[in-house]
Amino acid sequence: RPLNGHFAVYHIFGDDRRGLNIVLKVFADGENPSVPSIADVVPAADWCEMEARDLVGIEFEGRRPYRLILPLGWPEDLKPLRKDVDYRAKPRPPAVGEKLGTAGRVGGAAPIPVGPYHPALHEPEYFELYVEGERVVDVKYRGFHVHRGIEKLGETRMTYQQVTFLAERICGICGFTHSTAYCQAVEKAAGIDVPERALFIRSVVLEIERLHSHLLWIGVACHLLGYDPGFMHMWRIRERVMVLAELLTGSRKTYGINLIGGVRRDIDQGKAKRVIEELARLEKDFRSFVEVVQTVPQVVKRLSGTGILPREDARRLSVVGPVARASGLDRDVRRDLPYAAYRYASFRVPVYSEGDNLARFMVRVEEVLESMEIIRQLLDGLPQGAIMAEGIEVPKDKLGVSLTEAPRGENVHMVITGHGKPYRWKVRAPTYQNIPALRVMLRDQPLADAPITIASIDPCFSCTDRLLVVDVSTGRRRWIPFSKNGFVGVG
To answer: Residue 145 pLDDT > 80, yes or no?
Structure first.
């Protein structure tokens, strides 16, 4: 609005068949912004529209107002992402704070308040599971209680390069894919040619990060299912992957290597050889685990046929990553919209049609093996040359959109360039896109399968220590420690 007196809403659509993104720009009035809602046609836009109303104040015609990001007591006239709102602004505390509580029975079903949840970055999340006996009949979700305002901070206090390090703090596990997506968005906007060697290094580190994330999740899934030998075995392998991450980046969390225009650390022949040799040992250990875990009844029977997300629902909700591929959607940004050095790698995208928890488990298992192969190919073909572009300049008022395939799925960063820093920086993480699908996945499922089903989208939740269970048929209420019902920390 400060640039031309009106707001602009950007709808970004992906055309996988033609390998391109379509950006539809719609203008809205500068004083009373309003645009038509597309949520009826594109259900996946539902949360995005609610977020835009909360943070920018854009109304979407044809839908009722509903808070998604901001707490219920937040002043209606204070829209935090508007340019005339100071990033240090603190609204007056409401007279009555927001309380997490159930609305009572829904169609004869009684609620189980589960939460607040704490993801990996200690953000509370809240689910209401409505049950009849031991069967879930509906689900409601409330999150974003401690929104960190990273986008606002990146637009006000930091230079382009400094935001790179902020971007990787979005996620405690997948930080490198966020910094890569941000760097690529700025590089596209500015027309920066990144040296080919730097692109290879980015892809290698991205796959190391995928190994770390998937091995962590597979271990936690085994723990949730009561198979702790699998948990310990996976985390033993994961520890060796984190040693490789430290070898390549100087950090076990793959932080601090990306910059706009390239990378800060090179991979010499000695490091490449060590990685390839260790991957051979890791692959042998992992394949041995897979052979064993497929014979463990408590794993296979608990995963098979539970938490089903049909293909039509997966497509309607535009779920991403392993969740999509387990429901028959053959999508992977690395292949469909190749970035970094993925066009030089040959790999298979695992796709299953069952849509259940077992399919999501197996997609990640197979992706571990594919990631190992990708790393070997890229290190074998690592080109010579510089690792950082020279003479980097970022012009104002340019748009860059970047997609990466994070371990959890499609990750999107959009940047509108400004003077020495982003004018607008928008982030959409994969979990944001997958959470709405839990309502489909949990419905008509046994309560005992809810923990592994929630964990199957890999949201990195951890939980408070107990929940209230209400049996619809008897009205009996009882407090149950999460450890006795399978609700244990994931993070």
So the answer is: no
